[in-house]
């Protein structure tokens, strides 16, 4: 009797092991991408070419939308996605929080696709006049650094304003009802506020920030599947080239996906940077400056080394 029971137990354990192996294999054959309501990944998702190419490698693609970069990288940190795109500040906060991420590529600067906005009837005419005012922003997002640099340029400290940390939808609602004095935001939310609410730009990123977009992956996924990451970046670059060549076509394609008019979408599309490339020493240095800025402000708890989290593809992959 005991022998039969033992055999059954071993059989159950063997079945469980097989099931676990099948689950692990299924996870390895799925690329989980996090995206936001803007940027090249929206276009890539609509185009469908990535799915076709990766299917040849036995990889399925799963897409998940996030409201902002910090939320997306939290998804990456807890393991719900393998890859995503954000502005320049979210990876700094994520790295400081212990996320095991790698920068794999970046887009050219797009400094006008983020801005500090004020309502059309606002009496505020300069960044300096934000002293003591309530400013809405998504904490740890790309616009967080824009706000810091704009205040610095105006001779103000971050502590001179009252930051109100809200995701884009909530921030817009607060902005519309007048419970905040200014809103720091990115496209396409920026373009929508400019056109629909007649919001006025107090300061965009021109001359003070690059506003790079970064493509990031979890370190384990990038190390285990370098060819998948390489294929993904190739497809991102191809979509970017198409976008530069025919922005009107891209606008037609992406406007319904964003739920915005073609006029608003066109503004956002044309302000974006296109042409994903591996990170250069100059871009790494610029990102290090951002990290050091937030360390000095005590918004992150420790000094970071950006150079430690830059992906270098294996030589055989890089040569293909």
UniProtKB/TrEMBL annotation:
SMART domains: PBPb. GO terms for cellular component: membrane; periplasmic space. SUPFAM superfamilies: Periplasmic binding protein-like II (SSF53850). Pfam families: NMT1 (PF09084). Residues 1-28 form the signal peptide. InterPro entries: ABC_SsuA_sub-bd, Solute-binding_3/MltF_N, SsuA/THI5. Gene3D superfamilies: Periplasmic binding protein-like II. GO terms for molecular function: ATPase-coupled transmembrane transporter activity. Residues 30-242 form the Solute-binding protein family 3/N-terminal domain. It is found in: Periplasm. The keyword GTP-binding does not apply. Its main location: periplasm. Keywords: Signal, Transport. Belongs to the bacterial solute-binding protein SsuA/TauA family. Part of a binding-protein-dependent transport system for aliphatic sulfonates. Putative binding protein. This is Putative aliphatic sulfonates-binding protein. It comes from Metapseudomonas resinovorans NBRC 106553.
């Amino acid at each position: 009797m005991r022998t039969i029971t033992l055999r059954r137990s071993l059989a159950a354990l063997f079945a469980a092991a097989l099931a676990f192996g099948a689950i692990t294999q299924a996870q390895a054959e799925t690329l989980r991408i996090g995206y936001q309501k803007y940027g090249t990944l929206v276009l890539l998702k609509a185009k469908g070419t990535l799915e076709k190419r990766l299917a040849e490698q036995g990889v399925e693609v799963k897409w998940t939308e996030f409201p902002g970069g910090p939320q997306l990288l939290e998804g990456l940190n807890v393991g719900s996605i393998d890859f995503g795109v954000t502005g320049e500040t979210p990876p700094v906060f994520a790295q400081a929080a212990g996320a095991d991420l790698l920068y794999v590529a970046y887009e050219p600067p797009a400094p006008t696709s983020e801005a500090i906005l004020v309502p059309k009837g606002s009496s505020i005419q300069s960044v300096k006049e934000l002293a003591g005012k309530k400013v809405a922003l998504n904490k740890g997002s790309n616009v967080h650094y824009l706000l810091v640099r704009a205040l610095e340029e105006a001779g103000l400290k971050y502590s001179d304003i009252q930051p109100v940390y809200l995701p884009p939808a909530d921030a817009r609602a607060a902005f519309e009802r007048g419970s905040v004095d200014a809103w720091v935001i990115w496209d396409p939310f920026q373009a929508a506020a400019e056109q629909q609410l007649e919001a006025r730009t107090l300061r965009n990123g021109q001359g003070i920030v690059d506003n790079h977009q970064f493509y990031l992956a979890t370190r384990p996924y990038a190390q285990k599947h370098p060819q998948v990451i390489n294929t993904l970046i190739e497809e991102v670059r191809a979509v970017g080239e198409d976008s530069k060549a025919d922005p009107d076509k891209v606008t037609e394609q992406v406007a319904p996906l964003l739920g915005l008019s073609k006029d608003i979408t066109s503004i956002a599309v044309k302000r974006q940077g296109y042409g994903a490339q591996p990170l250069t020493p100059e871009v790494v240095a610029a990102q290090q400056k951002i990290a050091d800025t937030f360390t000095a402000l005590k918004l992150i708890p420790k000094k970071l080394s950006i150079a430690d989290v830059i992906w270098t593809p294996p030589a055989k992959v890089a040569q293909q």
